[in-house]
Design brief:
globular; 6 helices; alpha/beta; Rossmann fold
Length: 237
């Protein structure tokens, strides 16, 4: 059975820039992926759309949903948005319960989300804290409890926009060479933030260089960097 990947971002485009290749690789190998956006990023992440005369928040949300859904489809993923609003992103007890229930229903093998520190984006750390708490609630911290528990999924942070200021420590590099064109196509859907497309294509190339130097695998041309947060439990080295 293929891996089940759950990607949770604060805003509807976060998954494309930071994990688009990882998602496409997972689904191309027979796995499945669900992308959750806690908000559409309609206030702080949609600057290009607000340049249109007479623009409304409802229309921005509609466009962002269409763009994210199209990008997710290209990557082979399902897209859902909780539509909680952004800047600030606020998490209620009801939202936390909903997300924990989603963990229990999906039982993902791997979860990707933001870093817990981001001095330039107030919503990203909130999303990270929410994901970590929902994961623990759904897994019962690895012990039996009064409600259904799932096997604790692996948890990774994807790369923030300014990693050196977010205490991001890349310790896992995903070779996305075979799916880089899918990631480019998915990024192309995000016209509300078109200025990021070149940046993240170039980042993929730089991380590919790092992956080659680390591994000696010359065939790696593009990569995404992740930070694994939990120790490996193995039978042997």
């Amino acid at each position: 059975m293929g891996k089940k990947l759950l990607v949770i971002g604060a805003h509807s485009a976060d998954f494309v820039w930071r994990a688009g290749g990882t998602i496409a690789l997972t689904t191309s190998q027979g796995g499945s992926a669900i992308v959750i956006a806690l908000s559409y990023g309609e206030r702080g992440e949609s600057g290009e759309l607000w340049k249109e005369p007479g623009q409304t928040i409802e229309n921005v949300k509609r466009i962002r949903h269409e763009q994210a859904s199209a990008a997710a489809e290209i990557l082979g993923a399902e897209f859902l948005c909780f539509d909680l609003g952004d800047y600030p992103l606020t998490i209620t007890d009801e939202v936390m319960a909903r997300l924990a229930d989603l963990f229990r229903e999906m039982e993902p093998h791997i979860v990707l989300t933001h870093t817990p520190i981001d001095p330039f984006n107030p919503d990203h750390p909130v999303a990270c804290q929410t994901v970590q708490k929902a994961r623990l609630l759904a897994s019962g911290a690895g012990v039996a409890s009064a409600f259904k528990n799932i096997t604790p999924p692996d948890l990774y942070f994807f790369e923030p926009h300014q990693p050196e200021l977010c205490e991001f420590m890349p310790n896992t590099f995903i070779d996305i060479t075979s799916v880089m064109e899918l990631k480019r196509k998915a990024m192309g859907c995000m016209q509300a933030q078109s200025y990021l497309q070149t940046y993240y294509a170039e980042l993929g190339s730089r991380r590919g260089n790092h992956a080659r130097r680390i591994s000696g695998q010359e065939e790696v041309k593009f990569a995404e960097a992740l930070q694994r947060t939990l120790p490996w439990v193995v039978k042997s080295l």
